Amino acid sequence: MTALWGISFDATPISGVVVEFVKTARHFADRGHRVLLDLGYDIKADKDLFFQPYRDEGTLLPDWVELARVAGISDIPGYDQQFVADVLRNVVQRGEPEPRIQPLAHQIADLIVQAWEAQDVSFVLVENGTLPENITYTHALHLAVNEYGARRGLGRFVLWRDHDLMWQSEPSSRKYGDYPYPATPRPPASPHIHYVVLHEEARRRMLDWTPHLAALDVLPNTFSYDRAAVDTSNAGFRKYYGIPEEVPLIARCTRIIQQKRIDRDLHLLAGLTDAYLFVAGDTTESPAEYERLTGLAAELGVADRVIFGGLLAPREGHSAGNRYSVRDLLAHTTVMSFLTSYDYESYGNPIGEAIASGVPYLTTRYQLYDTVYGGKGFRAAVFDPADGDLPGPGFIQEVRDLLDDEEKRADMAEFNYQLGQRHTTKDVLERLLLTPMDERIRLSVILPVYNEAANLPAVLDSLYHQRGIDRELYEIVLVDNNSTDNTVAIAQAFATEHPDVTLHVVLEPEQGVSCARRTGMRFASVRSRGRSNGDERFHLVSADADCRVAPDWLAELFAAMESGKAAIGVCDYYYSPEHFTGRPRLWDAIWKTLRCRAVTFALFGTFPDGKGFAVDRDVHDAVGGIEIFYQVQDGRFVNHLSDDWDFGIKVRASGEDIAFAPRSRVEINPRRVDHAINEVITGRAYGNDGIIVMQDIRVTGAAEHPDLTEEQAQQAWEFSIKDFTPKNTILPVLLTPSLLDDDVVIEFFGPELAERLARRIAKIKDEMRVLDFTPIHSYKTPSYRLYFEFREEIFARLRATVGEDIGYPPPLPQCLQDVPPERFTEFVRYYCEDRESGEAHNYFGNGGVF
């Protein structure tokens, strides 16, 4: 099991930095990765924790987070807490040289790489690594990232997130020197690192400082929106801490250090005679500040209403025994306070947590408040330090009014909650686990896999040896769908052995090729938007792991997409005849289907098949990407298998064109036919009664495949053509009736038939009272109806265009054979719309394997 290695430069078990790490790491844990976290005790010098072992810090974190350290770091001569403190004082603040930094950084880097190798690390998340608290360790990380990334053949496997930077953290104190901060290691433009900052202002300042940085993104802190409600797990919170149930409670979640200005909360409390203040933070971090605050509380006469509750588990955690979490505190809080220093905060996590929990808040107008919250319209009681250092009578009265007015608090909290869902939630998987790609890449090839160890080397080799297209123009995104063999190891080894092509491995825990294809396309789409040349068209390409792409497959598909305006390009699919040597009857059925398909593909552009198609990224995003539908099979929900087809229908229905790229070819694996032929002969494949499900069609052993009998071959052909005709001949004109005005389409159908089809489609649409035929199944019923009504004429056109051997329509179902001719159209409607029996679905089949 591969691992995520987290590194916090905060050196504290719980802080805003650690909480954000937990939120991010949750997405890795959900996808089967181990999550390891180095709290930074051996990095930051001012916490007096260097080389001290972990004790009970893990109880504050979810049980899926393992605390980690770099073994052997305490044995490096000269690297200790005093050295780090001296570097911060002498090098960073005073600009004095220190020749020991680089040699020590190399030794630390070697140990970091050893730790990552031992834990099979595939992702690294660095929190606050640019802040120059320990520039030696930052240098070491840069060295380790480059060495490990090159050794493992990894892309941008590091997410480097800076919560605080020199211009955000106490700039007036000159703790980190002066701009342009010459001693601070500037972030290198590493091919292995994706940098993120918390807001646009930080991004602007970062680019002013390091204009060469291309892989830099904005990622606001994220919050899960679920109002903290009192329940049996936290109902005893107030009683446990001695807080009366009826009194207003002000909460402050913070480090207990001078910069957080908890003294302001104490002065506020002195003006609110009935309120209580709960301070959640480590009272041992700064003993002097804790002593100062308790003395001030006594001096102001509020000591009996102040609870220093110690560290609480993160809001994402839950109470366990006497261990309460921030969630429990918020469930009992009247208002959240954030009266911090003007120039200390970069984001303000407690505000975000209050908003997401449906709790009103009060705050200072700290330097970046309007950037993060105020400028977006959030409502709060705001204290402006420009009006004085401590809360005055006006602000105290504003808070008093808020505490007394339950309706006002509820309105404020609800307004902020709704606004926050638009501004402070992000899909973390898509926005920060995904990295910008090389500027030159124009295509991402998405390859869903499940236990494909036997087949994968040949597939990857065929993708690597594409002709007519530079490897720098495309990348491979392999989506592992819970493989239990060594599929992923094979992919990683391939990436290491072929560094000239980019390969990413993405995990998708929900079983089903549809889910895997959706995840891969989202991954590539979001990453591609990090490219600066965003005006160029970018294409998402689907491939199947059990098929073989021709050497010119990608080049021809790319050329087809670039030369036209089509949103989707569909490949040509074929079988190699040598796989059917000795089975002429089966091959004849297959060949007839392929010939029919070639005609309709050229006419209508058809719909995408997962075996090979490309879609314009912008169109993919505009229609919402791949959509997963679910069906009930044997009492449980399963993925509907036709995600690729339904995606094409959404694109076509949006007004976009689909083009056929006949020279972009994919060879279909014959095992699909060999596996399903018995079901095809009996008129079933991939399920029945409208249930379309994925089947594992891997061959488990050598098997001989005799040819079909004449009767079986006819049954197979009829099954195939019944599936083919509604989908490939009727559905395109059903979705886009304007095709029936096209000269080549009119030539195929004939003017008279084309005109009658157009009239009939309009009438059925009006009769069904639908706006369009886009939703799944909405298009099946009218397609089936039109097939029955026009089958004889359509087959006549196929015979005339493809060949006389196409023959005549398969026999009607018995129930329709018994219907009087004058009522045929009426009963076709009943038959096709009868969802309860599923007879029409079974007649037409669930998927033509030819």
Automatic annotation (TrEMBL):
Top-rank taxon: Bacteria
Q: Which UniProt keywords apply?
A: Transferase
Q: Which InterPro entries match?
A: Glyco_trans_1, Glyco_trans_2-like, Glycosyltransf_2, Nucleotide-diphossugar_trans
Return the Gene3D superfamilies for the record. Answer: Glycogen Phosphorylase B, Spore Coat Polysaccharide Biosynthesis Protein SpsA, Chain A
The Glycosyltransferase 2-like domain extends over: 444-601
Pfam families linked to this entry? Glycos_transf_1, Glycos_transf_2
Residues in Glycosyl transferase family domain copies: 238-417
PANTHER family on file: GLYCOSYLTRANSFERASE, GLYCOSYLTRANSFERASE 2-LIKE DOMAIN-CONTAINING PROTEIN
Protein name as it appears in the record = Glycosyltransferase involved in cell wall biosynthesis
Q: Which organism is it from?
A: Kibdelosporangium banguiense
